[in-house]
Write a structure and sequence with these properties.
There is one protein chain. The chain is built from twelve helices and 16 strands. By secondary structure, it is α/β, with parallel strands linked by helices. The protein has a seven-stranded mixed β-sheet. A six-stranded parallel β-sheet has the order 8-9-10-11-12-13. A three-stranded parallel β-sheet has the order 5-6-7. Helix 10 packs across helix 11. The radius of gyration is 21 Å and the shape is globular. Bound molecules: zinc ion. The site of zinc ion has 4 residues, from loops.
Length: about 450
């Protein structure tokens, strides 16, 4: 099985890079037993003491109390001083390319190979930070995300499991466009693959994107903070045009995620039937009620406004970007708090790529500060995220039959979610990528 072998070789490499002692050899025992001092059961919303997780191959076989017998021959990994959690999930990353800056044409200054290798670096950083799955939400250069997803799946690249949208569905000069070039400069087609200006065009681009290997559709329903010129509060698609994307995606058995800051754009997207609202910075009470009623997921990146503000000032970014960031950061947090109180379904998404990859856990304490319990915040980044991605059958909790995607941090993680910034152990699909094994 070549795929298994290459996965193991990469795991060994990842273990060495992480300074850990992942012992990988030809005689890998089929069974692993993880002793967990604390085990976070995100399905029941409780932490259980002294449990053992049994792993066979890439799947979880059983969860049992420490007092129960461990089958002979099992390789034991002792995490009894640790809190053991399901691998975390970030539903809003941008793994392809360099960190976004005020240099709006940066993607044009880099070759596709450079964009790809940045993606390789970002994928590894994300996995080693304990995020074993991501729903990536886009790249300017179409389909580089599809290639990265496939390279991770076949063991070529170390990274999280990915679901990807292939390209941005956006109006011309809208939030998903590369803007800032001189008017007589033509932006190459590969950056404009998803540009659509009518319901028919939306259908055609959605078809092309899904035929190209995307897993779901990302539509830009309003302007954006970091796309120069566009206005976060301004709607860029009509409800009918967004519905065209939703219906076309449904033909393929998948869904639409809508980037939407403005209150009106949010409501149009929810009414049109999108599965998730991304950002939601200027959401109003009616929008919150509508999302609750429709079961729409809310993916609000409530940390990165602080990052953009501090780095943007330091690097003297254009005033209009800093102003838009300021105008959306605190309103987004207030809206988030109301949505949590109203019982809107929340999934964890950080917009990593706007800030450095590997810091994905930074947002967890922010979510607690803005209305969630530590368990709710943890659920948003595990079981809830898996539900949004329609992957709850394989990831999101430590349960028999699911992938053995498991992380651990020292001490009591839920007492201080900042501890998840220092994940000491990462396993994906039964392979250890970070951490010391025992004995
Ligand atoms: Zn984003």
């Amino acid at each position: 099985m070549p795929r298994r072998r290459s996965g193991l070789a990469l795991a060994m490499l990842a273990g060495l890079l992480a300074g850990g002692a992942a012992r990988v050899g030809a005689q890998e025992p089929a069974l692993i037993a993880i002793r967990a001092g604390r085990l976070v059961d995100v399905e029941r919303g409780e932490v259980r003491r002294d449990q053992v997780v049994l792993i066979r191959g890439d799947r979880i076989a059983a969860v049992q109390p420490a007092s129960a017998k461990i089958p002979s021959g099992a390789r034991i990994i002792d995490l009894s001083r640790f809190t053991v959690l399901p691998g975390l999930i970030d539903c809003h990353t941008h793994l392809i390319g360099d960190i976004q800056s005020a240099d709006v044409l940066l993607p044009l200054e880099r070759s596709e190979a450079q964009e790809t290798f940045s993606g390789v670096r970002n994928a590894r950083a994300t996995l080693l930070a304990g995020f074993t799955t991501v729903r990536d939400v886009g790249t300017y250069r179409a389909f580089v995300d599809v290639a990265l997803r496939d390279a991770i799946d076949d063991g070529t690249v170390v990274g999280p499991r990915m679901r990807v949208p292939g390209a941005y569905v956006t109006v011309s000069t809208g939030a998903g466009e590369l803007v800032g070039a001189a008017p007589d400069v033509t932006i190459p087609f590969s950056y404009r693959f998803g540009v659509a200006n009518s319901a028919d065009e939306v259908r055609a681009r959605v078809r092309a994107i899904l035929n190209g290997g995307a897993d779901f559709v990302k539509i830009l329903a309003t302007g954006a903070v970091l796309t120069r010129g566009t206005k976060p509060g301004v709607s860029e698609y009509t409800e009918e045009q967004i519905r065209a994307a939703v219906e076309q995606a449904a033909e393929y058995g998948t869904y639409v995620a809508a980037h939407a800051h403005g209150a009106e754009g949010i409501k149009r997207a929810v009414r049109a039937g999108v599965r998730s609202i991304e950002h939601g910075s200027l959401i109003d009470d009616e929008g919150i009620a509508l999302m609750k009623e429709r079961g729409t997921w809310f993916v609000a990146d409530i940390y990165n406004g602080d990052y953009t503000d501090s780095v943007g000032r330091l690097q003297q970014w254009p005033a209009d970007i800093l102003r838009k960031n300021e105008e959306t950061t605190e309103t987004q947090r207030a809206g988030f708090r109301k949505a949590v109180a109203a019982g809107v379904r929340i999934a964890y998404g950080t917009d990593s790529g706007v800030y450095p990859h590997g810091m994905n856990a930074m947002q967890l304490p922010y979510m607690v500060k803005h209305g969630m319990t530590p368990m709710q915040a943890t659920q948003s980044a595990t079981i809830s995220a898996a539900q949004l991605m329609q992957w709850e059958d394989r990831v999101g909790s430590i349960a028999p039959g699911k992938y053995a995607d498991i992380i651990a941090v020292e001490g009591d993680a839920l007492a201080d979610l900042r501890s998840l910034m220092k994940v000491g152990f990462v396993m994906k699909g039964g392979v250890v990528y970070k951490g010391r094994e025992s004995p």
